[in-house]
Predict the 3D structure of the following.
Amino acid sequence: MIVALYGVAAVALGLAWPGGLTAWVAAALLVALGGVVGLVYLLSRGAGAATEEANLKAAEHERREALLRLEVEGTGVGLGLVDESGRWVQVNESLTTILGRPAAELRGTSLPEVERAVGELQAGTRTSWHGETSALALTVSATPVNGSGVLYLVEASDVSAAKRAEALRDVLAAVRHTIATSATWDQAGPAILAALGSTLGWDAAQFWMLDDQNVFRLRHAWHRDSERLFEFERDCQATGIPAAEGVFGRARKSGVPAIDRSITPQGNPALVVAARKAALNAVVAVPAAGGGDVRCVLALFSAQPEEQREDAMNMLATMGSEIGQFVQRAETTAALQRSEADHRAIFERAPMGIARISAEGSLVEANAALLAMLEHDFATLRDQAWPDLLRSYDQAAGRARVAPLLAGISAGDSVQVRAATGDGRWLWLQMTATSIPDELGRPEHVLVMVEDVTKVRDAQDRATEALEAQRTANADLEKLDRTKTEFLSIVSHEFRTALTGIQGFSELIRDGGLEPDELRAYGGYIFNDAERVNRLIGDMLDLDRMESGRMIFRMADVDVNEVLSDAIARAAASSNVEFKPDLDPRLPIVTGDRDRLVQVVSNLVNNAVKYSPEGGTVTLTSRSEGGYALITVADTGLGIPPDEIPHVFERFRRVRSGAAQSIAGTGLGLTIVKQIVEMHGGKIWVESAVGHGSAFHFTIPLAVETVTPAMQLRHA
Amino acid sequence: MPDATAGSHSYTVLVADDNEVAQRLCRRVLEKAGHRVLTASDGQEAVNLALQDSPDIILMDVAMPGMDGLEAMRQIRAQKPGMTVVIASAHSMASDRDRFLAAGADDVLSKPFKLTELTGVVDRLGGRSSSAQA
């Protein structure tokens, strides 16, 4: 590089010298040296002698010097002579420009590099020295001057632009390296900003990102070590810059770096105030676009309102875009990682049991909730409990017409299965299988959600039972209601039938004009029906008392044979049938309400008489059988048709066939009889054949004590 | 036997009722009013008498042993569609009345009845089927 620069300087001289470039390179160097000789002469003239010849020579020298000066000053290469100490003796204008100081100031001063070069050349190892500072490329050569010892020619050229370009490339390389070796922007950011700021000579380098409210917030910051810059960073942290404002807004909108050479209040006020306070005057905002929207801005601050070179701006633009893409990649990766972590957390911490099943049906993974629910460790669940559960699922699925678990391609089918836990508790599990296909759509594994619905299920079962009980109760009530309505209908029919005679015949009597025998007959009808109505009312009340449990039985020892004998004695007096007692004299006494048992017997005897033809036979039998007294009242009467037999003890089911039509009863007699017998702990039934008669049997439990001799005697 | 105090028309009335007292009441009242009274004690007997004697009007009880009054009416009507049948029943709820009329009764006489209701329904409807049966 130094050789090249030297060449450039030589070419420049050659071009300026008459006669062209290539052939004159060497000559140019000689002329330059000749100029140096002239310079040396001029420098020494003030102390020299003055002769005519000398004057002529001096004039000639002066002319040549003027020419040379023109040439030397016209070149862009900085040239200067230094003495043996390295101090400037003479400089051309280019050198004063490069070094940034006027010739008068430079004279007598030195550059450390030049001093070192002179020292090395004096040591005699070489005749020229090349070196460079951050901004200069230097060539120092020894030039012997007659009478003045040795002077040294210094050629200097400004290489700051090249150095800057190199620095930019280095920064870009450093940024790329950092990006390549960092996982997140938070890792890469500080290193990149530090490299950028220090290498490129900024006072502060910052990275700003848009937040949810579309406001830029300081994310990372670097600054040169300075109290005011530290404060600037703090101020920046405390502020936010709306996305569209100021230099950030311009950079964001244009997508290329934007510059504020002097930070003015027209930009973001807060940022301006902070920058002013920190004596920062220039800012470059570099958009870091990750594709599409610019969400990040790299901001470089400097105290000097410097001209920004195009190459630097280009580099910054490139870097901004690379940083932007990196930030986006890093954010996407972070989001993916967060998402995966979230899903993992859902799997691990879900209160619902989750299992992953291979396409072959084996348990691959089970979360903690599932293991806890089923009270198994993973290995036991996988090897023992899961195969059972899978079978249960498929059976339940079959019943529910849901696809088997492994074929459960469609999502969201649930079945409930009964399963025992490791501790032997039985649970109701609701299992929902979802097939997870691979990229080609083949079932890769099945995700099974398992919920313990035991409580829900138990509650449902209880609710169903309660509902069932309620339905039954309702049905019973409805039946009762129907029975009641039916009963009312029947009762009113019975009363109205009886009242028909009473009302009709009393109307006849009231209207008068009847014969005495008619009056007697009608009075008899009225009396009978009135009596029947009264019996009906009494029977109904009896029945109601018995059925509602309000009838009081006065239980005592009862001699059944005596009851039967009394009934025969009463009925025989007023009927034309023959009574045949067949009483067991050894029949023990029973425990019962004597009046009610009399009611039972007289009812059956009256029925037997009513349904018997004249001259028929009514047989009364008593036996002791299996702890009961068995009593039978049999007649040789009409008999009961087979289809009527099941109904004879029902209310108002009188057998009214044939001659029975004229037999007045309440229709409640047998119903009451049955109630009384059953309330004594006995049974009643009937055997009958139409045309041969009927036999009513009933039993009454025997009393615990044995029969008395007196009774035996009486019935012997 | 027709009574001397009978009205202008004398009809043959069949009283079908299993209740002996009701039969006697109807016979006494209707004969006094000059009508001829036949009695039946169940549905089958009523059908037999109705077809055999062609009464002008039938007073038919419903709740009778064996064949009930409604079935008897149906069988009679099957043979003699113009026969006048009045249902006389102690089933006297409003729904019963509708049920009997729907079954084809010419009228319904609810028990217990006033004697004028009995004679009235015979006077009113006794002549209705006579021409048809003539």
